[in-house]
TrEMBL record:
Homodimer. This is Asparagine--tRNA ligase. GO terms for biological process: asparaginyl-tRNA aminoacylation. InterPro entries: Aa-tRNA-synt_II, aa-tRNA-synth_II, aa-tRNA-synth_II/BPL/LPL, Asn-tRNA-ligase, Asp/Asn-tRNA-synth_IIb, NA-bd_OB-fold, NA-bd_OB_tRNA. The gene is asnS. CDD domains: AsxRS_core. It comes from Salisediminibacterium beveridgei. It is found in: Cytoplasm. It catalyses: tRNA(Asn) + L-asparagine + ATP = L-asparaginyl-tRNA(Asn) + AMP + diphosphate + H(+). It comes from the Bacteria.
């Protein structure tokens, strides 16, 4: 019977064969312990000389790290094993004896590991992070499908910018200029006018010269957009969505959280509604704490961390000054200088994971913003059309997948939360 490590529990006391790689090996006299992995999980294979005979035992002993093999054995229940099972090996069929593997169980520097990212992905910790990433994506689709959203895919090659021109990736589009998408939002607004509630999930690109634990050049964003919803209603969707994702990871990734040593007690306490403070209150708080920041300035990482530290939950900072936010945000009804927007700040120093707002729905005001931001009517006429033909109040937001994975998995740097990170100094592998 051919099976996988994750399915081994279905075959207790039966003989099975598994395709696997050797993650690690330990010998003790007449026994060899094989740490096997197959992508679905990890299991220990026990090879006892007296049971398998000289030839198979010798084969087990000469196996090198990352050799590929078909292993046959009997599945045993074992309480001490993380997966709950062990394999008593009866046969080993070597597919390839691997050459000297560069990543050994000893410590390696980050640059070395990043140079070997194509291999590093096989390690237990990286495997756990990617599984949590996968669970967050799965739970995202479940949440939005259940809430009646339609998935719509915005383009990646665009003719105009969504989030300002300072960090656009430029490319030629035959004879025209084009840019890699910074955000699908403007297209998602068009989609919301066609489908009501929509969400996208795709790669976005920012030519940001930032070298921090929170910045990637290429990252993946989930962007919901909702017609007939004001900003207040959008905040409720956001906190319910984030709570749902946390619960899904806690429920479906217990082994992975354990491998990563994640403090799950902290995660268990996070549930909607999340606390909210205004930008004004945040500035006052920071000034009282001795930070040098004036009204009108944007928050940096230390500011966000200081604010988040006062809560054990993610916190919404709402109503930022209009001048530090994107052109499309709707002004506050009582104050011209602030907009109906929010950033959701994750606890434990992981920073902003969501940016969202209610969008301007008035044609004249939008035209005024085009002028203020030097946006050409020619490029943005289609976006203005949305305010021309049945304009409605609408809101949306973008959740950065990698920062969310970093926070939920307890991973310090976003570079480990995407399979092949694109960083300021890294385009390979
Ligand atoms: O706040 P941002 O720039 O918002 C938008 O792009 C809106 N158009 C979204 C919308 O309303 N549809 O980015 C949203 C999120 C941030 O909160 C952060 O989580 C993530 O995207 N993000 C990054 N993640 C990794 N590396 C970067 N360089 C990021 N820049 C933003």
């Amino acid at each position: 019977m051919k099976t996988t490590i994750s399915e081994a529990g279905k075959y207790v006391e039966q003989t099975v064969t598994m395709g696997s790689w050797l993650a690690n090996k330990r010998s003790s006299g007449k026994i060899v312990f094989l740490q096997l992995r197959d992508g679905t999980g990890f299991i220990q294979g026990v090879v006892v000389k007296a049971e398998v005979g000289e030839e198979i035992f010798a084969r087990a002993k000469e196996l090198t790290q990352e050799s590929s093999l078909f292993v046959t054995g009997t599945v045993r229940e074992d309480e001490r094993a993380p997966s709950g099972y062990e394999l008593t090996v009866t046969d080993i069929d070597v597919i390839q004896l691997a050459e000297d593997y560069p990543i050994t169980p000893k410590e390696h520097g980050t640059e070395f590991l990043m140079d070997h990212r194509h291999l590093w992905l096989r390690s237990k910790k990286q495997h756990a992070i990617m599984k949590i990433r996968n669970e967050i994506i799965r739970a995202t689709y479940e949440f939005f499908n259940e809430q009646g959203f339609t998935k719509v895919d915005p383009p990646i090659l665009t003719g105009s910018s969504a989030e300002g021109t300072t960090n656009l990736f430029h490319t030629k589009y035959f004879d025209e200029d084009a840019y890699l998408s910074q955000s699908g939002q403007l297209y998602m607004e068009a989609a919301a006018m066609a489908f009501g509630k929509v969400f996208s999930f795709g790669p976005t690109f920012r030519a940001e010269k930032s070298k921090t634990r929170r910045h990637l050049i290429e990252f993946w964003m989930i962007e919901p957009e909702m017609a007939f919803m004001d900003h207040e209603e959008s905040l409720v969707v956001q906190e319910n969505y984030v709570s749902f994702v946390i619960q899904a990871v806690l429920k479906n990734c217990p082994l992975e959280l354990k491998v990563l040593d994640r403090d799950t007690e902290k995660l268990e306490k996070m549930s909607a509604p999340f606390p909210r403070i205004t930008y004004d209150e945040a500035i006052e708080f920071l000034q009282n704490e001795g930070h040098e920041i004036e009204w009108g300035e944007d928050f940096g990482a230390p500011h966000e961390t200081a604010i988040a530290e006062s809560y054990n939950q993610p916190v919404f900072i709402i109503n930022y000054p209009k001048d530090i936010k994107a052109f499309y945000m709707k002004p506050h009804p009582d104050r011209e200088d602030i907009v109906l927007c929010a950033d959701l700040i994750a606890p434990e120093g992981y920073g902003e994971i969501i940016g969202g707002s209610q969008r301007i729905d008035d044609q004249e005001l939008m035209k005024q913003r085009y002028d203020e931001h030097n946006l050409s009517l020619e490029s943005y006429q289609w976006y203005l059309d949305l305010r021309k033909y049945g304009s409605v109040p609408h809101s949306g937001f973008g959740l950065g997948l990698e920062r969310t994975v970093a926070w939920i998995s307890g991973t310090e740097h976003v570079r480990e939360t995407i399979p092949f990170p694109r960083l300021l100094n890294r385009l390979y592998p």
